[in-house]
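Quick one, tokens below. Sequence please?
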């Protein structure tokens, strides 16, 4: 049996997200009380380390950067802004960057750091329909870019593809493959979109149709060099789908994991990409795994 422990976060309002860092030793939480909190986690014990204040609205998500870049944490808020926090000496956190006020004209709903192989790049999805990129450059500045287009009504989530091309560990015909720059976005237009960065910059590769209402979340599975790309999506329509890319860019196959009959808020993959966690509108979190015959089944403890 897995032991589940909980603790009092100290937030004065609803907690919207909680994320462990790369090593599982730090926990960041964010809340409608406009603050981000950082905790040290050792076994069942937790120690409150810092309160990060700077947002002027509910903070929806937090995201840890890869430790290669130091102790870095990003947060996004209803206040249209993204703040990147960096830890200095003695657990002193400071604002390393605040996105300009005109970057987004509505709530920033989702943030996701790119695979570390691509550099320190944060993708940000907003209710204004656009997705922006904040990239740290060698001269210490942050460069801003945006996807061409996005989602007409609003963008709810963004998730990067692994930097390793699918199947690269299975067949290495031409030596070491280059890092892949792709991501998936979800929107209030009921669509998922796949984007790829090429010689002409960012381009929309495909729009995936399947949900009958807002797509609340999208999560690209870790590939670990496996031969296919896999994405999970969660909808306001209660449906969770897993999408698998056909070989040689032949489109995507959709498989229903489950119809939850209530809105589904979040989906996230295990580090191996074999188990899918689903958070639904009944405040339940369930785990799902694909059986040998390709049917998704709930993992029971």
């Amino acid at each position: 049996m897995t032991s589940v422990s909980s603790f009092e976060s100290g937030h004065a309002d609803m907690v919207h997200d909680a994320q462990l860092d790369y090593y599982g030793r730090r926990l960041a939480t964010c809340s409608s009380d406009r603050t981000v909190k950082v905790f040290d986690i050792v076994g069942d014990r937790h120690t409150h380390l810092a309160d990060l204040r700077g947002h002027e609205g509910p903070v929806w998500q937090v995201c840890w950067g890869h430790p290669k870049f130091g102790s870095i944490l990003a947060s996004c808020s209803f206040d249209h802004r993204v703040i990147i926090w960096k830890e200095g000496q003695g657990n002193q956190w400071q604002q390393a960057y605040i996105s300009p006020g005109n970057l987004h004209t509505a709530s920033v709903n989702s943030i996701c750091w790119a695979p570390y192989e691509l550099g320190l790049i944060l993708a940000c999805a907003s209710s204004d329909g656009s997705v922006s990129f904040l990239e740290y450059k060698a001269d210490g500045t942050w460069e801003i870019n945006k996807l061409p287009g996005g989602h007409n009504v609003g963008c709810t989530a963004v998730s990067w593809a692994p930097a390793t091309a699918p199947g690269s560990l299975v067949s290495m015909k031409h030596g070491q493959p280059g890092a892949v720059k792709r991501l998936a976005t979800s929107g209030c237009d009921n669509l998922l979109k796949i984007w790829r960065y090429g010689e002409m910059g960012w381009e929309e590769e495909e729009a995936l149709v399947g949900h009958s209402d807002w797509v609340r979340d999208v999560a690209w599975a870790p590939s670990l060099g496996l031969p296919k790309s896999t994405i999970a999506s969660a909808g306001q329509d209660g449906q969770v789908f897993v999408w698998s890319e056909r070989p040689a860019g032949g489109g995507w196959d959709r498989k229903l994991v489950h119809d939850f009959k209530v809105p589904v808020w979040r989906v996230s993959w295990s580090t191996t990409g074999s188990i899918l966690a689903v958070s639904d509108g009944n405040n339940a979190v369930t785990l799902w795994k694909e059986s040998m015959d390709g049917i998704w089944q709930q993992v029971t403890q």
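The longest strand covers residues 45-53. The mean pLDDT is 89.
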